[in-house]
Amino acid sequence: MKSPDDPTTVNRRKYARRLLTGFLFSSTGTLIALSPPGKESCAIRTPINRAVWSDPQSLSDLLEKIPLQQILEVDEVARMVVVLVSEVAPHLDNHGAGNTGWSGDYKGQPMLFAKRNGSALALVCSAAFGECSVGFVGSSDGWQDLFAHRRLTAQYQRAENGNLGLTGEIRLNECGGEFILALGFGTSPAEAGHRARASLLKGFPAARNRLVRASTAVLRCHEAKRFPGGQIASLSIPWGASKGDEDLGGYHLVWPRDLVESAGGLLAAGADEDVRRILRYLQTTQEADGHWLQNMWMDGSSYWHGVQMDETALPILLVDLARREEALSAEELTALWPMVQSAAGFLVCNGPVTPPDLCEASSPLSGFVAIKNRPPGESNEPAH
């Protein structure tokens, strides 16, 4: 069956709103299927939340969220749940429009394909896709079908020259709940299928180890030799095609927000010493009133002169994350505590509104500024 014609106009705001409907874990640990207004919701009984069903209060709290008090078993909803994660919207050749997609196979292995000009992609699953559908985003793609019917009712095999959504069903009850998705790219559909299948056969651990090593190496390349712990936001130049040699700033600066996010990646990779260097750099470049500059040169000199609350809040979160991951000794945590106190004081006195947001465009409330004051009389020393 061929998908209907691509609509010339898609109501993208409506398309974005429907993404709010999906699945979440409640406070009781139970997976809840959230439905559109006016349609039923259900709770899903799984092994990890078995205790909920034997505790009257927990069950009562859960069922308040389920108007019809419908309870399903895993195998009843497995087909519905995972389809939500296996939709791909190809933007090949740097264009969302003009893509052609179809459901096919490579060497007998079911895959979802898309191509545009000399670029192609292929999506394959270790569990083998069940029902598949290829449609136009906002009108006939799989998510539209799921949103309207809570299951795939149409299996379009091909859609041409449009903004596409490729949807593949993964049956959890047939794969024990474990599966790997591999996305391959190439200059032709056959090359993309070859790469996807080769990645699947190689396995996830090999890919993960290679990518972690490459990612940590990229992060380390951004650190200055003369200023240990100082990392610029990026070696790339934003809008480089229109920038001249006289514009030396941009991403070639330290942005405390980006620096903390890089530190989080290094911490996840086990590079604890790198994280400690970054924290010492942040401690050294903190302003007297407790905040950090919007961006700065390696020596701490300002470039732009704005104040962004998240640039001050994120270093506090990094200290806490490093503490919870046991990357800091008790002595190191004590040494960092004045930095945390000073930053928190600045946020209390000046937040939660931040003058420019992270795109330097407006003055919104900052979601990172959530300060809880200590009760009177409680020690200001860090908890070890």
Brief summary of the model shown:
The chain has about 375 residues and is α+β, with helices and mostly antiparallel strands. The chain has helices at about 10-15, 50-55, 55-65, 75-85, 140-150, 170-175, 190-200, 205-220, 255-270, 270-285, 310-325, 330-350, and strands at about 25, 30-35, 40-45, 70-75, 85-90, 100-105, 110-115, 120-125, 130-135, 160, 165-170, 180-185.
Characterise this structure:
By secondary structure, this protein is an alpha+beta fold. 36% of the residues lie in helices and 15% in strands. The protein contains twelve helices and twelve strands. The strands form three sheets. A five-stranded antiparallel β-sheet has the order 10-6-7-8-12. Strands 1-2-3-4 form a four-stranded mixed β-sheet. A three-stranded antiparallel β-sheet has the order 5-11-9, with no helix packed on it. Strand 7 and strand 8 (119-125) form a beta hairpin. The longest helix has 21 residues, at 330-350. The model is unreliable at 1-44, 67-85 and 371-384 (pLDDT under 50).
How many separate helices? 12
Number of strands: 12
Taking pLDDT < 50 over at least 5 consecutive residues as the criterion, the unreliable ranges are: 1-44, 67-85, 371-384
**N→C terminal distance:** 63 Å
What sort of overall outline do the alpha carbons produce when their principal axes are compared?
A: globular
The helix/strand class is alpha+beta
How do the helices and strands follow one another from N- to C-terminus?
HEEEHHEHEEEEEHEEHEHHHHHH
> How large is the radius of gyration?
25 Å
> How confident overall, as mean pLDDT?
75
Helix content: 25-40%
Question: Which strand order spans the largest sheet, edge to edge or round the barrel?
Answer: 10-6-7-8-12
